[in-house]
C-alpha cells in the first residue's frame, strides 16, 4: 500500500524539484576525472570538474593534446580532419586578455545570460534582439582584427558565432512568432512558438537558436556565474567554450549521479502517481543543450515503462567543433554533425531509461525509442527494451562509448554515412502491456472494491461510489440492444424486450418498453442506430420536457416554459421521488472531481448517495431562470436552492442564487453566498467567475479595496471573464479615484475581509490526495480528471507531463 505523496503540493507552491529522484539537481553533473594522455599526464579534453569550478588557466592551455575520443561529440573522422585542414579556417580570435590600450575603442559590454534572458522575455521581437546582438559582437570583432577596438569577451563571441551558425542572420529565414523563456526547473532557454503550425525547416532553425543560447548559458555559468576565482573572465578563450560544451554533451547522463541503479524490489513505496510525477519531473529538470520532448507510459503492476523522445536533427548541432588533434576550431562537416546528433540521441535514450529505473524499483523493463517527428513524417530511429539488471552494471557518470553501450543493452539503431535511418519501432506506447484496458472500466457500473488507503483518500469504498452518470446503465444496455436490431419490426421488438424486461434497473426496463413502442408506431427507426441509442438513453418524458422548455426559454416564451416544467415536475415531487430520507440522499455531479470533493468534504458519515437524472436537475435551473425572467424572484430563489441541494459544487445554481439576492437588494446575502462558493471552488473557471461576481457586489457595497482585490484575482484567472474583470477594474478605479491595491497585497486584503483564497488549502489537499489515490488504484477516468485539473490550476509542466502520461480510454 502506497503512502501519500505530497510532492505535488511542493510543485503547486513553486518548489524546485521535490519529486525528482535522489541525485537529480539543477546543476550540470561533472565527470569525476579527466583521461590522461599516455606519457604526458595532461587531460585529453577539458572535462567539467565537480561543481561549477572553472578550468584553470594551466589546464586550458595544455588540454587537448590528444586526438578526440571516438565516443564524444568532439569526434571527427581522420579523413574529415584532413579535409577540414584544407577548408578556409575561421579567423583565429586574438588574445582574450590584452593590456589596456587607451587608443582602442572599448569592447561591447560582456554578455550576462541572466540579463539577456530577461530582455528576451520582455522583447516583442526576440529574434530581432538576437540579430542585433550578433551583429554588434561581429562588428566589434572586425574592428578588433583591424586594431581599432578591444576584442569582445569569449563568451559573447561564442554566443554570436553560435547564433550565426544557427541561421539568426539568414536573409530568407521565416521566423514564427516566438517568446523566449527560462524554464522553471532546468533554467534553460526555451523558444515557444505561438503559431498554430510551423514549417519543419523553420522549426529546425528555432531549435538551433535555442541550442546556441543554452550552450552559451552553460559556458557563462561555468566560467563566470559560478566560477571560484581560479580563472578570470578575460582569460577565457573561445576554444575553452567549445571544449567545455563538447565535454558536457558527452556527459549528459552524469546528471543522474554515480550511485548504482538499485536492484528490483516490489517493496518500493511509490505508486503509479509518484512514479509518473518523478519521471515527468526529470524530463523537465535535466539540463541539456537541446530540447528534450518525451512521452511516456507506466504499468507499475507489470514492471514496465515506455518512453518515446523526439529526435533533434543534425541541423541543430553546432556547426563548428574544437579539434584536440589540430588544437583549433574547425567547421563541422555534415557527417560530423550527423555523428553528434546520433551520439546525443543515444545518450538521451540512456538518460531517460536510467532515470525511469531510479524512479521506482518496481520497474524491471524500460522500452525506449527515439523518433523523428515532422509535420509530414514519423520515423523511428532508435528502439529497444532495456532491462534493469543489464543497465545497473554500467556507471553512466563515467566516460563510455554510447554506440557500443546501447547495442550491448539491446537498443537497436542503424546508420548510413553517420546518419540514423528509420527502423521498426519495437513497441507502441498505448499497447496493452503499458496501458491495461481494465484501467478504463466503466466507473458507474464497476463492482471493484478500492484498497482501504485509496478508499479513504477518495471517500469511496467501491469504484462505483465515484459515479456521476445516472444514465450509465442505459447507455451500456443501449449499445447491446442496438447490435441486435435488424430484420422485421417484430423481430427487433422481441429482441429489445428480451434484453431489457428482466434488467434490475427500472429505467432500463422503461426504456425498452418505450423504444419498442416507438418502433411499432413508426416514430423511431431501427435502421438509425444513433437515433435509437439517444432515445433509449434520454428519450423519457422528463428529458423531452426539459428540451421543450429550453426551446421556449430561448424564444422568450417564459410562461409556456414554466407551464411545461410545472407539469413535468409536479408528479415527481408530489411523490418525493428524489427527496432525501435518512442516510439516503439524491445528488447530481458534473465531474468526477466534484463527486470526490463531495465525498470528502460535504457527505455525512454513512451517507448513501444516489444520482438524480440530469433532466431533473436541469429542470430546477430552467425553472429558476424562467421565473427570474418574469420577475418572480422569491420563487426563482426556491428552485435555485433546490438545484444547489442537488449539486452543491456546481456554479450554475450559485449564480442564480446570487442574482436573486441582488435583485432583492440583499447584497450582504449575495456576498455571503459567493464567499461560501469560493471556499469550495476548485476549477479555474469557477474560481474566476466567483471572484468576478464578488468584486461587483463589493463595489456596490462600497468596499472598493475588497472589490479591487477580487477584480485582480479574476483578471489573472484563466476564466472567460478575465478580460471583463480587467476592464471593470480600470473603470472602478477611474470612477472612484481610490488607491489601487498593490498586487503583493491582494491576498492579505482578501483574508482580512474574510474572502477565501481559492482554491483553499483544504481543497488543494483533497485534489492532490485524490489524484494520487485514483491513479494508484488505476481508476483512470477519475485520475485523468484530477491530473488535468491540477495541470490547469498550476500551469506546471511536470503536471502536464503526468496528464500526458495517462492514456486515453481505448477503443472498445
Question: Structural class of the secondary structure composition?
Answer: alpha+beta
**What's the tally of helices?**
31
Principal-axis shape equals: globular
Give the uncertain stretches in residue-range form.
Answer: 1-96
Biggest sheet strand line-up: 3-4-7-8-9
Radius of gyration: 33 Å
> What can be said about the biggest beta sheet?
5 strands, mixed
**Euclidean distance between termini CA atoms:** 31 Å
Arithmetic mean of pLDDT: 88
Give the total of beta strands.
13
Beta-strand residue fraction: 5-15%
Query: How helical, in percent, are the residues?
Result: 40-55%
3D architecture notes:
The chain is α+β, with helices and mostly antiparallel strands and 812 residues long. 49% of the residues lie in helices and 8% in strands. The protein has 31 helices and 13 strands. The chain has a five-stranded mixed beta sheet. Strands 1-2 form a two-stranded antiparallel ribbon. It has a two-stranded antiparallel ribbon with strand order 5-6. β7 and β8 (377-387) form a beta hairpin. α9 (272-285) packs across α31 (797-805), α16 packs across α17 (529-538) and α23 packs antiparallel against α24 (667-680).
